[in-house]
Amino acid sequence: MTSPPFDGQMPTVLDQRIETAVGYGVEELRQHRDGGLLDASHAALANAHRELVAAERDVTFYRARLARLASSELPVDQALFTRIHRTLDQLTKAVGVRDAKHVATAALLEPIEATAPRQTPRQIATKDVAALLAIAQGAKLHEHLVTHRLAVATPTRTRISYAQLQRLEAMGLVERDTAHPVQAGQPVTLTDAGRAALTVPRSAGPPKTTPVLLPTAFPAVSRTRR
């Protein structure tokens, strides 16, 4: 019997702490890590948490195997005792690995918790989000040899004008490697602020307001003088 493949869904005791510290769930943290959107400390936390999840899954796997061996499905004989002892040994080792991964993940989480609550990065326009996502996959600023027009080339062919690039630079979301000439292509990358802008939860829109119901107006009653 072999361990099931890693699916990234096994909960751990640190999940809630991580969500509180980073501002979103552990699954979203993993997605941001795979997309290259995290800074060094958050990426290290995502990697450590992934290893913790795998270790926790192994503990669950051997625990379930032990429960099956202890059930009434199998005949009680020396072979069963041998399998139980072997599984107990495997479970003990898995718990040791899990505990070590827990300590390592908690150590990476603590400095992030120390700076929480972090200032929430401001939300940016949808077209700028699309530009940042394209830049995250690799982008270069080129100058046309004939027209001398500047343009940003991306793998996704997302249209990013030079004016938009300048605006993103002014906002501190992207930076260029000016050591390369624009004729050969200047690499454009996200800054930490740019990555944070992509990982901040997007609002569903402006909050809805409940209209105030005004009292129904009644016609004035004229008073006749007597």
Provide an overview of this structure.
- With 226 residues, the protein is α+β, with helices and mostly antiparallel strands.
- It has a 4-stranded antiparallel sheet.
- It is built from 7 helices and 4 strands.
- Residues 1-7 and 204-226 have low confidence and may be disordered.
- Helix 3 (40-69) runs antiparallel to helix 4 and helix 5 (126-136) crosses helix 7.
Outline of the structure:
This protein is α+β, with helices and mostly antiparallel strands and 226 residues long.
Please supply descriptive tags for the structure shown above.
disordered C terminus, 7 helices, 4 strands, alpha+beta, disordered N terminus
Number of helices: 7
Distance between the termini: 103 Å
Radius of gyration: 29 Å
How many β-strand stretches? Answer: 4
- State the strand order across the main sheet: 2-1-4-3
Order of helices and strands: HHHHHEEHEEH
Biggest beta sheet attributes? 4 strands, antiparallel
Low-confidence stretches: 1-7, 204-226
Shape: elongated
Fraction in helix: 40-55%
Structural class: alpha+beta
Mean pLDDT: 81
